[in-house]
Specification:
alpha/beta, Aspartate Aminotransferase, domain 1, about 40% helix, binds pyridoxal-5'-phosphate, lyase activity, pyridoxal phosphate binding, Aminotrans_3
């Protein structure tokens, strides 16, 4: 039975009854029921087309025919767990190794970004024999208990901060403690980590790992200042810890000029562990941890087998290989650079016309537009951002969402086949909505000022 034969109201009622209500829907007041998708487009049950500006999971485009073909063929032939010798896992690991610095040459395949980060935590602790972790403020690293503990975005609303977790300021040069007028924000923010390490040592504790997204996304589409990560890595290493780059959102060429987000921090910067997920399988649950021979060796030395039933199975790895092929054959990194630059350029021009646009930032197809009620005070325009998202969906069938601690940053992380025309359409629509809101004096965030 095709599930979309249910009427939308029936699906909604069943969902309310059967699915845990903490699993929220996009546009919860009036959800969209998507029944098929292609490229950067989603289609509802009436075949109405929506432009997807947010799914960084369907990296090379929704339901890409090359991927579905490979997946079906491998599913028909064989799918086992990774305890049998098979070509796909090793060929895929080899292809991934070619995208990474030589040092990152041992791979563990898992099924989600959360599993990857949890394993990274285990690897770091086993290798360093230390317990404590430093994370960036507002970070999110996954939904497992261990990761809620290292995700200020979640633990602040739940059990609070564990004694082994230490929160460093988010290196946000628009809104953070050191801003764009600082002569060297990268160094200044790195020094906050150094101070934190000293504080941890004074408490008699030891750092196992520093975890950070290469471009903090939940934190508000943040671009780390130059030289931040190499400096932090230096401090973390001298404390005996390791640097974990969470590339779950940012890997696989999203930033265009580089395959990995961490490479924006310079050719000679190399994390000790890289975790990857979302875009890897183009929607198929596939994730991975890449690390060094030394760290992997320490993990092996505890003589406990690491077994993951689905991780690295032949179907997942065939899909992963097909995703890498499509990124190359369709020059999606080049597309990300060209379209991302055009999008940023158009949004920057829009900023000149609309006072509410406080900042436009991004690299490749990872772009954020921060809305503020007051450019001087940088007061978050949260309600305005929510209204823009709602109207884009209702009036233009464009799916955009918000991020950042105040949910006032419009985020763009579309499938990498996003086109110049798509970018132009989105910016025109945002312009129209903001112009209309200004003309009608819809100062939604008035009371927040
Ligand atoms: C940066 C980051 N790390 C880890 C995760 C967890 O990944 P998953 O939802 O696949 O478990 C997410 C998910 O949103 C994420 O954004």
């Amino acid at each position: 039975m095709a599930l979309h034969k249910l009427k939308k109201e029936e699906t909604l009622a069943m969902r309310k009854r059967l699915i845990g209500q903490s699993c929220r829907l996009f546009y919860s007041d009036d959800p969209i029921k998507i029944v098929r998708a292609r490229g950067q487009y989603l289609f509802d049950e009436n075949d109405k087309r929506y432009l997807d500006c947010i799914s960084n999971v369907h990296h090379v485009g929704h339901c890409h025919p090359s991927i579905t073909k490979v997946a079906a063929a491998q599913m028909e032939l064989l799918n086992t767990n990774a305890r049998f010798l098979h070509d796909n896992i090793v060929v895929y690991a080899d292809r991934l190794a070619a995208t990474l610095p030589d040092k990152l040459c041992v791979f563990y395949f898992v099924n989600s970004g959360s599993e990857a980060n949890d394993l990274a935590l285990r690897l770091a602790r086993q290798y360093t024999q230390h317990e404590d972790v430093i994370v960036l403020d507002h970070a999110y690293h996954g939904h497992l208990t261990s990761l809620i503990d290292i995700s200020p975005y979640k633990f602040r609303k739940l059990t609070g901060q564990k004694e082994w977790v230490h929160v460093a300021p988010l290196p946000d040069v628009y809104r953070g403690v050191y801003r764009e007028d600082h002569p060297d924000p990268g160094q200044a923010y790195a020094d906050t980590v150094k101070d934190l390490i000293e504080e941890v040592h004074r408490k008699g504790r030891k750092i196992s790992a520093f975890f950070a997204e290469s471009l903090p996304s939940v934190g508000g589409q943040i671009i780390l200042p130059e030289r931040y990560s190499p400096k932090v890595a230096e401090y973390v290493h001298s404390a005996g810890g390791v640097f974990v780059a969470d590339e779950v959102q940012t890997g696989f060429g999203r930033v265009g000029g580089h395959f990995w987000g961490f490479q924006l921090q310079g050719e000679d910067f190399c994390p000790d562990i890289v975790t990857m997920g979302k875009p890897m399988g183009n929607g198929h649950p596939l994730a991975c941890v890449a690390t060094t021979v030394e760290i992997a060796g320490a993990f092996t030395a505890n003589a406990v087998e690491y077994f993951n039933t689905f991780g690295g199975n032949p179907v997942s790895c065939a899909i992963g290989l097909a995703v890498l092929d499509v990124i190359e054959t369709e020059d999606l990194r080049g597309n990300s650079m060209r379209v991302g630059a055009h999008l940023k350029d158009l949004l920057t021009k829009l900023q000149k016309q609309h006072q509410v646009i406080g900042d436009v930032r991004g690299v490749g197809l990872f772009v954020g537009v921060e809305l503020v009620t007051d450019r001087e005070k940088r007061t978050p325009a949260t309600k305005t951002a929510a209204q823009v998202v709602k109207r884009l969906k209702e009036e233009d069938q464009i799916c955009v969402s918000t991020d950042g601690p105040w949910d006032n940053v419009l985020k763009f992380k579309p499938p990498m086949c996003f086109s110049i025309e798509n970018a132009e359409l989105v910016v025109q629509c945002i312009d129209r909505i903001l112009t209309d809101m200004a003309a009608n004096d819809l100062k939604l965030d008035k009371e927040d000022i």
